[in-house]
Specification:
alpha/beta; Rossmann fold; seven-stranded mixed beta sheet; two-stranded antiparallel sheet; globular
């Protein structure tokens, strides 16, 4: 069965008249500009912040692998930026199933994570420690992609270590196995981007 996105599902037209929707921002970090994807910054969206670190003052202190504080089918969208790679590999399916549990039938998840293939190419080319790109937190090298952002780890933030990795194919497969009806994955720069749709967000 082929699934295709509704033609008007992702349009901003008429957003002002539509009821506000809730995006769960998992692994939100501190409140700073740019952490919430631009798609969710319109007045249509209400951000609900979740993080394991109480110091960043999230709305909820919780792990993405255990979102019991949120009921089934209560969330319209999930935004997860550079979160999944911090989980032990066996916990990734658990986290993805939690996403499908809390999302409404017409909801979706937008996920980004480092592309291990891009990092591998840099390593093979002899650039293990050379910056691949510059993030808001500073230069990021292939070594950081493999094991976690070294400046953060040096500051004692052990939960920032990387414990698994993804390719386009692997991320898409894991999300389908977790219950998403359709997943579109692409590589942009050094990151993977996945748009994962729940069953009612697509045409049969």
């Amino acid at each position: 069965m082929n699934h295709h996105a509704h033609a008007g599902r992702w349009s901003r037209q008429g957003a002002e008249a539509a009821p506000r929707r809730t995006v769960l921002h998992v692994g939100c970090g501190p409140v700073t500009s740019g952490r919430l994807h631009a798609w969710f910054t319109s007045e249509r969206w209400n951000e609900l912040r979740v993080d394991v670190d109480p110091a960043v003052r999230p709305d909820m202190v919780a792990s993405i692998t255990d979102l019991a504080v949120i009921g089934d089918a209560e969330i319209d969208a999930v935004w997860a930026s550079h979160v999944l790679e911090h989980l032990p590999d066996h916990d990734v399916p658990v986290a993805l199933r939690e996403m499908t549990r809390i999302l409404r039938p017409d909801g979706f998840a937008l996920v980004t994570s480092p592309d291990i293939v891009t990092a591998a190419r840099a390593i093979v080319a002899g650039h293990l420690e050379d910056p691949m790109y510059v993030s808001p937190a500073g230069p990021v090298a292939a070594l950081d992609v493999l094991y976690g952002f070294r400046p953060a780890l040096k500051r004692g933030r052990g939960y920032m270590a990387h414990r698994t990795a993804f390719t386009e194919g692997r991320l898409g497969r894991l999300m389908i196995e977790a219950g998403f009806a359709e997943v579109r994955v692409a590589t942009h720069g050094s990151d993977l981007w996945a748009l994962a749709l729940m069953p009612d967000a697509v045409d049969a």
